[in-house]
Amino acid sequence: MDETLAEFFRRTILKIPMTEMMTILKTWNFLSENQLQTVNFRQRKESIVQDLVLLCEENHASLNDAAHLDIIYTQFHRHQKIWDVFQMSKAPGDDIDLFDMEQFKSSFKKILQRALKNVTVSFRDAEENSVWIRIAWGTQYKKPNQYKPAYVVYYSQTPYAFTSSSRLKSNLPLLGQSFETHNCTTSLQEGSLGLDINMDSRIIHENKVEKERVQRVTQEIFGDYPQPRLEFAQYKLETKFKSDLNGGILAEREEPLRCLVKFSSPHLLEALKSLAPAGIADAPLSPLLTCIPNKGKNYFKIRDK
Amino acid sequence: MPAVVPSLVGTEDALLQQLADSMLKADCTSELKVHLARSLPLPCSVNRPRIDLIVFVVNLHSKLSLQSVEESLCHLDAAFFLGKVAFLATGAGRDSHCSIHRNTVVKLAHTYRSPLLFCDLEIEDFRAAMAQRLVRLLQICAGHVPGVSALNLLSLMRGSENPSLEDL
Fold first, then answer.
1. Residues on chain A touching B51 (C-beta within 8 angstroms)
2. What is the pLDDT of residues B69-110, one digit of tens each?
3. What GO biological process terms are annotated to this protein in UniProt (chain A) (predicted)?
C-alpha cells in the first residue's frame, strides 16, 4: 500500500476513541469478524492501530475505503462540526423531476471531477433519504488533501443541504451547480398519520367527525411524509402585553414586553404535527408554528403590526 | 340486563383509550360498552343507549383539557349531576408538568357536587385499579346493584372523599 494512504489510515483510525472503535469498525464493515478477532485490543492504542492498518493492507484497502471510514467517523461525531444549511429554490417553470439517488451521485461526482482535476468524492447513504458526501480538495497541481475534507449532507426529499468546512466557501458556486441539475423532488412517501383507533366494538368513539376533521387539517398542513428533523424553534416577542383582565400592572405599559419562547424537542416538527391528533392542541395550529418548513427558518422576531 | 354504558369525556384520546381498555379488562358482571368523547355535546345520533355514568377526564398537565371539560359541563343535563358524574384528574404524580393546580379541579368538582378521583392513568397498575373502581361505580349508577342507587353512593362518597373547601 502506498505510504501516504497507509498513513491516512493510521491517522484516521487513531482518531477513533477506543469506546467507539468496535462499533465504527463494524459499521465500516471492511475488515471481517475473523480479522478483527486476530487483533489484541488490550494493547496500547498505537499498537492496535498498527495491527488494524496491516489488516487493511492485507485487504488491499483503497482510498475510497479510507474515505468511507472517514465519513463514518464524522457521522458519529457530527455534533463536533459546525454546519451551514443551504436551501435550494426552484426557478419558476421548473418541473418536479423524480429523484434518483444513484444518478445524483454520479452526476455530482462528474461535475466536480470535470471542474477540478484533483478531487476525491465519496458517498454514503444515511437515514431519511439523505446522503453524506465527502469531498477532499486538491488544486491543479496538488493531490487532494485528505485531512481537510468538506462534507455535504443532502436530504433528497427536501431542498436542504448541510455543509461543513470553511474551505468550502470558494467552491460553493461549483457545489451549487452540481445540485442544480437535480431539483429536489417531492416524491412523497406514504406514511399514515393515523391514530391507533382500537377496533374493539365495545368502545364507541363519538366525535368521529371532529377527529376526521383534525386529521384532515393536520394532513393539509404537514403532509403525509416525515417531517424534516428540527430540534428547536425560537420566538423573540416584542409585543405589547395583552390581557383579558382589565387593569393589571403589565397591561398599562406602552413599551413592548420582551420575551423569548423556545420550543425544543428531539424532533420538533413531528411533535407539533402530533399535537392536534393527540388532543393536546386545537387544529389548525398557530401559523407561527406551522410556517417553519415553508419559511425555512426557526428564529422569529414578532412585533406588533 | 341491558349493557352498562360509561362515557369518558376528555381531550386526550390516548388516555381515554387506555382507560377504556382497562375498564373492559376489569371484572364486570354486566356487559360493558364504553363511549369515548372529546367534548360535549355529543353529536346528534339516533341510536344512542342511555348513558349510566359520565367521567370527565382532566389532564393536570394540559390547560386545554380543563377548558374543554368546563365547556362541556354546560351542555350536560342537570339530572346527571345526581350521582352520575365523576371527575378524574390525571398527571398529579408529575408535579413539575402540572399547569393546573389541584385545587382548581377540587373546586370544580365541588361546584358540580360530584366526586373527584385522582389517578395517574399512564401507570398501568394505577389505571387498572381505577378502572375497576369506575366499573363498580358504573354498575351502581346503572342500577345493577340492588339496594344502592347512584344518589346513595354520592352521599356516601361525599363524606370521606371530598373534604369541604374549608378543610383545605
1. none
2. 999 999 998 889 989 999 999 999 998 999 999 999 999 999
3. CENP-A containing chromatin assembly; chromosome segregation
C-alpha distance from residue A250 to each of A241, A242, A255, A304 (Å): 6, 8, 10, 16
Give me the CATH code for the A208-303 domain, please: 3.10.20.720
Q: Which CATH superfamily is domain B6-167 in?
A: P-loop containing nucleotide triphosphate hydrolases (3.40.50.300)
ipTM summary value: 0.79
Residue to substitute from A195, A199, A204, A282, interface B, most B β-carbons within 10 A:
A204
- Which one of A203, A207, A278 has the shortest CB-CB distance to B34? A203
Every domain of chain B and the residues it spans: 6-167
CA distance A79 to chain B (A): 30
Counting as low any pLDDT under 50, the low residues of chain B are 168
B10 contact A CB<8A: yes
Taking the CA of residue A284 and the nearest CA in chain B, the distance in Å comes to 14
In Å, how far is A200's CA from the nearest CA of chain B? 9
| pTM of the shown model | 0.56
Q: Please give the interface size between A and B, counted as residue pairs whose CB atoms are below 8 Å apart.
A: 63
